[in-house]
Amino acid sequence: AMSKPEVVYLVATVPSGLETLAVDECKTFPDILSARHLRRGKIEFALSCDRLEKIKELRSIDHVFVLVKRFPDFLKTLKGKDECVRAFHDLAWQLDFNLAISVWKKFTSYAHDVYVAKEYPGRPDDLPLPTAARFAASSTKNKASSSADSTAVAPTGEGDSRNSDSEPQTENAGTSSEGSSTADIVVPSYRATCNRAGPNHSFGSPDVARAFGGSINDRHHWRVQMENSDLDVNINVIEECVEVCIALTRDSLHRRGISNFGPTTLRSTICNGMLRLAALKPGEIVCDPMCGVGSIPLEGASAWPHNYFFGGDIHEIGCGRAVANLRLASPAHSTSPGSALPVDVYNWDVGDLPLRPGTVDVFITDLPFGKRIGSKSNNRTLYPRLFRDMARVCRLSTGRAVVLTHDRRTLAMAMKNNAFWKMRYFRTINIGGLEAGVYYLSRSTLRVPTEEEEAAVAAEKQASKRQKSAALKMGGMQEEVVS
Q: Which range among 154-158, 193-197, 467-471 has the greatest average pLDDT?
């Protein structure tokens, strides 16, 4: 009988504040067995080892790590810096890296076999002398060659003066069923990185990275290389919990679609979260009135092919970059290879959109923060103009808007006396160290009056004011005559 493929647990980084939306996306994939919000900026999901290619189809995650093991109460009974550092040193000897290395090899298409020592349940002090002597010749060779060409002889026990029963058995990760020759086994380069969260840690991140990373070198004889290493081993310390992961992605998965960047180009993972927050329905028309280089329309047209997306910007340079990005995008659902996404880009002023009333279902946009572009004083006049014209163009009752901004005070002022939009909820996210907010607004049933109607109302108010003034004046004259 065929054995079932092993299930592997993966940890992914996502834009902070949008974790639940990333979990919702994972649940739409039938191959993903489970998904949950792990902590701020992190989610966890389970996947069969034969479905690892599905990871690259997720559009809301940045980096992916394969979980080696999690220890929920690792630091609970440890006291003092020395005891904690010693525990991290011993931890590397007790972990089984074989499944994680197999997943890493398959995901990254690493062509060589990697030597991985078995986990050892005791302490390193109980082991015989390290087997570094067996790797002395190969270590010299590895320093002079790249990791792709460097090979090492796996420990076989031949020529060792110690009893073969005194050392734990070893195995090779990723070898074929027929077995691999020792010449095919590569000693990969690696680096160990520690990330800590939570107070009252008696040790620092460099202490953990040094102790754990050095122990990996002693046990598995992988080569330490701080830059451009093959393996990136992460030790995450959250309060008392410790988890060990291996990075699967070198570059963030959000680097897609955009080739021509602007000063404030929005990450595609944040664009995806905003689009998910809008709960788009098939056939709805979506507009980004301040699209810049087209990040939001591009992400929307790529992930929601049953909706129509368009956008515009007042800067001609931004519009040109958006058009260039759209032409370079070649989606898999395109009918003709190499064709651009079905997105339109216009050069317009957001305070005077060239659109008929009630023609847009959803507005999604990244508002100026007043940092790199514009200023907060300009935002005080820009935001009210924008929301008024968006209300004019948006459908009554069912229309909605999702906006992102760091200038919360100006947005609150614009919403305070605005009868056309109602703020439902918002989420706080982190963008480059800035705490911004994503706001969900719903369109009210109140229609925006036309310019003619506003002029008529203004004239009526002026006439009423004149009548009152004349009445007061006549009343004063009558009192003067009587007296």
A: 193-197
If you average pLDDT over every residue of the chain, what do you get?
A: 82
Distance CA 340, CA 328 (A): 7
Q: Write the CB contacts of 213 (distance below 8 Å, at least 6 apart in sequence).
A: 190, 191, 192, 224, 233
Query: 75 and 240 in contact (C-beta within 8 Å)?
Result: yes
Q: Which residues contact 429 (CB under 8 A, 6 or more apart)?
A: 15, 16, 17, 18, 270, 273, 404, 435, 436, 437, 438
**Above 50 in pLDDT, residue 131?**
no
Q: What CA–CA distance (Å, rounded) separates 456 from 460? A: 6
Using alpha carbons, select from 266, 310, 300 the residue that is nearest to residue 280: 300
Q: Tell if the pTM clears 0.85, that is, is over it.
A: no
- Mean per-residue pLDDT for 412-423? 91
pLDDT tens digit string along 266-281? 999 999 999 999 999 9
**DSSP β-ladder status, 308-313 and 285-288:** parallel
147: DSSP letter = T
Place of tokens 């073969």: 164
User: Could you tell me the sign of the dihedral formed by the alpha carbons of 20, 299, 292, 285, in that order?
Assistant: negative
- Helices 408-416 and 376-393 pack at an angle, to 10 degrees, of 50
Taking the C-alpha atoms of residue 264 and residue 480, their distance in angstroms, rounded to an integer, is 69
d(CA 18, CA 60): 9
Q: Within 10 A of 432 (CB to CB), how many other CB atoms are there? A: 9
351 Cβ contact partners less than 8 Å away, ≥ 6 residues apart: 382, 385, 386, 388, 389
